[in-house]
Amino acid sequence: MQIVIAHSHLNPGGVTRIIESQVESLSGHKITVITGEAPQTEKIIELGANLVIFSGLNYLEKRAYSDKEARDLLSKLLQFFEEQLSSDSILHFHNLNLGKNPVVTYAVYLLAQKGIPIFNHAHDFAEDRPANYQFLKDIITRNFRQNITEVLYPKLPHYHFGVLNASDFERLISYGVEKERIEWLTNPVPYRHKVSEEDKKKAQKIICSSLQLNENKLLVTYPVRVIKRKNIGELILLSVLFNDRVNFTVTQPPQNPEEIRSYEKWLQFCNEHNINVIFEAGNKVDFETLLIASDFCITTSYQEGFGMVYLEPWLFNTPVTGRNIPYITADFINDGFQFPTLYDSLSVLDNHLDFREMEIEEQMQIISDLQNGIIKKEEIFKQNKALNSLFQKVNTKLIGENISIIKNNYSLEGYGIKLQKRYKKMVG
Length: 428
Known about the structure:
It contains 16 helices and 12 strands. The strands form 2 sheets. Strands 3-2-1-4-5-6-7 form a 7-stranded parallel β-sheet, sandwiched between helices. By secondary structure, the protein is an alpha/beta fold. It starts with a strand and ends with a helix.
């Protein structure tokens, strides 16, 4: 059995780390990773996979395509897949239905029609992103004259799906996918080594020195690539609310041009208002050292596929705080996880509108008014009781219990076993 794992890119981030974990967990199998671009190839190659880079898998520009353009792209893709796949191949494709390259989505559907076993690993859904879904619809229905539901969710026995949580499992069933063809595949959380208090102190000295931070303040890290759904404006609001006792860092910038524009607005805003959030910290210091050094990891995201940020930091003795996403955390809580300092919403006006629902200009105005004293910090803390315990010390026993759950329920070994069982189901 040849396992071919595919994604549009291997840029630093969640999906890339999952692909690396998959390659590691499937050690001993013949694995090829195909992708549109891979700025850092060392890890995949070190893990023993064959790496193939083909630009046809890259994201497409969102615009109208002529039938000839679409069919030329399709022809190149089908020729490429024909070269890469053999009679015993399984094609494991990440975020195939997200709508970043609808021609790839259609090409893989045609491969499935020819009998190639497909594992569609859904981290996110185009149905949650109107522009992406419209892009899929334009190309699949207009250029290729196909039914979009059939292409995205074909009723083929060898076309299976992987989902990250119970909510998405139920979603696929509502889309007409039989539960026998769905694998609930929680992401693995590799446990490397135990982190001691001494390790944390050493890491804090390194990070505070490297980033020129005040060692007397808490260090709070948002381990994220900044895109819209990560709700960076809320993190900036919190940085103003807690500026007297917390240093905030954010690890990665966006790479999508559409996302870069709003990100640069926030950078300019923070610069103009002397807001001292350290952006792109992951490019300035070692990522693991930063997580170890942090007193807390925080998330202000309002939409996730799996929610790795709620799990991984605990392995570095770093509690997780911030915004709760109930459909994500429910699965973890069912496993016994405890999140003592999450909040469900953040209101800043008398109408109790959640901050995350505001447009970027409204968010900036509120943060500016807070900076200028027009809005009082005390009012926000009074309106949002949960903020008062946001950075409350988490006891060592609770941290240890959460670490044990990760080791028992989200191991790399268990993940590899689940994958292999699913592949065997697909080929009969």
